[in-house]
Amino acid sequence: MPVAIITGASKGLGRALAGALAARGWDLVLDARTPEVLRETAAELEAGGTRVTAVAGDVTDAGHRAELVAAAEKLGGVDLLVSNASALGAEPLVRLEALPLEGLRRALEVNVVAALGLVQEALPLLRASEAGTVITVSSDAAAEAYETWGGYGASKAALDHMAAVLGEEEPGLRVWAVDPGDMATDLYAAAVPDDDDPRPAPAGVVPAFLRLLDERPASGRYAAVSLLVEGR
């Protein structure tokens, strides 16, 4: 069975994607910072027959990243690496004039530095896979200027560029930066707690990720909304 590592997998988009891959027979290595919630997610997926290794920890910890890759290797390798774990930089979001620099550093460490560190750790196994794939979860804030989203958006813009360069440097892999669009997640609620407008559930955008895995287009940046519309 193919093996995927998914960070930030205990809830939201990470959990929804893990569930969809489990339904397709993938084995999974799941990461999150909260052990209890991660164990619940893993138990739910294992009930369907999927092999799941849950590894709680912080992706900014090099030892934790090595543990994730080692767990995947025990399951057979790494065919897919999904960097979904994210940090906002401030909760709720604030204008740049008030953005704590430590918060910005945290966003860059989680969203960019840790993502690259995990790729570096997994690269030998990804290259050995017949369909080695890296997905970095982007945001429209990486490409558009929204008030208060400056720190988070800057980190996702850096992640997008890193993914683009990785795609050039590793032509044997598929490297996709995917903008999932607005979703009802705990991350968004923490970012803008006063926004009560309805938003789609993360499960609604998972078919866009599955379409990429099925069709394997060229490395690049993709918007989930476009993939969903074109796939109808």
The global form is: globular
SS elements, strand count: 7
Proportion in helices? 40-55%
Strand order of the largest sheet: 3-2-1-4-5-6-7
Average residue-wise pLDDT: 97
The largest sheet, given as strand count, sense and whether it forms a barrel, is: 7 strands, parallel
Distance between the termini: 28 Å
Q: Count of helices?
A: 8
Short description:
With 232 residues, the protein is α/β, with parallel strands linked by helices. The chain is built from 8 helices and 7 strands, in the order βαβαβαβαβαβααβα.
Describe this structure in words.
Helix content is 47%, strand content 15%. The chain is globular. It is an alpha/beta fold and 232 residues long. It contains eight helices and seven strands, in the order βαβαβαβαβαβααβα. 45% of the residues are buried. α3 runs parallel beside α4. The protein has helices at 12-23, 35-46, 62-75, 101-128, 150-169, 186-191, 206-215, 224-230; strands spanning 3-6, 27-32, 52-56, 80-83, 133-137, 174-179, 220-223. The chain starts with a strand and ends with a helix. The protein has a seven-stranded parallel β-sheet with strand order 3-2-1-4-5-6-7, with helices on both faces.
